[in-house]
Amino acid sequence: MMTLGISVYPDLQTVAEIKSYIEMASHYGIQTVFSSMWSVEGNKPAILNYFYELIEIAHCHSMQVCLDVNPECFKKLDADYNDLSVFKEINADILRMDISYDLEKSIALINNPYSIRIEFNASVTPPNFIQQLIEQGANVSNMSVSHNFYPQRYTGMKWNQFIENNEALKKLGVRVSAFISSQNDNTLGVWGASQGLCTVEKLRFLPMEQQVRILAATENVDQLVVGNAPASAEELQACCESLKVIEPDDEMPGVSIMKKFGAERNRFFPQKKLRLILNPLVTENEKDILFHFMPHSDVGDSSEWIWRSRMPRFLKPNIPYRCAAGEMFDVGDVVMVNNHYQHYAGEVQIVLQPIVNDGTRNLLGHLIDGEEQILELIRAGDVVVFLKGEN
């Protein structure tokens, strides 16, 4: 399952503020603390003492610490690719190489005797460099990649480039991390960041929980780190809730139906989560099917016009016709087949292209803005989980 992390800024936050943020985040299952080591001023002892204390705070809350470093930072701390003893002394877990060494030195760095994980900059390091590292003896279990964050609006990565890079990296068996933006008031970050701190530009101003669901739906990102700080408790809670996987339970009507057809456990995964605003006229029976039936999934042959969850019809539900305004259903409408088409009554459908409102479907609601990005990531056979949005 995807994990979450937070960023802290020693040059912009007090130790007390950072400690409080880490403690708060720990309540929501946050697993990683990211911080820049090269941005802190001072001599070697002062820097090491500061990060020793920071790492101790994180470890007390069962979090790993990822330190952003580069060769110049190594020089300042009397470290090099063959000697990471200073990082071992402060109990560092992960070193993110914002700028990397060459191939041979990077292999030595990865294969360090302390098992400090080495993370490469996925935004500027081509996948073939990672492949070369692995082919020439780098321990793949002791390496990962992390994308950049981009403080300046309009400078984040292209979506297609992000997806293509991650797909190539995942084929190599490498763990991939990226950054998302908190929309909390008065956040801070590197270089006066005030407009979010994310990897992908088109996600910059979306609600944080929606960014998480979109990136989880790609299935090629293992960790998301909140770039700016602090995220609110409400944001972190919503993100962690959205990542929870719904396990199949034999008591669920849909699960028992699927098992009669011989479905294996993996048929209930992966789960893509979509949030919608409900039609005020939706019935309790319709809501129960929409939100509590599992699994909502097509069988691999949905058309260009609608995505279909067929299994609810096997419940033989009573879905009385309800008039829906307008001659057409729009893209993003979520509908349910009613008793006017008895054989299919109970099917949950998502409109992908405008379709005629012929009286056989009731309007359940409409996807919130931004959910179309998840729709594009739903593949044949994927399970969809519907979440209620705020009116």
UniProtKB/TrEMBL annotation:
Taxonomically, which superkingdom?
Bacteria
Q: Which residues form the 6-phospho-N-acetylmuramidase N-terminal domain?
A: 4-238
Which Gene3D superfamilies does the record cross-reference, listed alphabetically? Aldolase class I (3.20.20.70), Cyclophilin-like (2.40.100.10)
Show the InterPro entries listed in the entry: Aldolase_TIM, Cyclophilin-like_dom_sf, GH, MupG, MupG_C, MupG_N
Could you tell me which residue ranges the 6-phospho-N-acetylmuramidase C-terminal domain spans? 275-383
Q: Span of the secretion signal?
A: none
Q: Which PANTHER family match?
A: DUF871 DOMAIN-CONTAINING PROTEIN, PTHR38435
Name of the protein: MupG family TIM beta-alpha barrel fold protein
Q: Which organism is it from?
A: Dielma fastidiosa
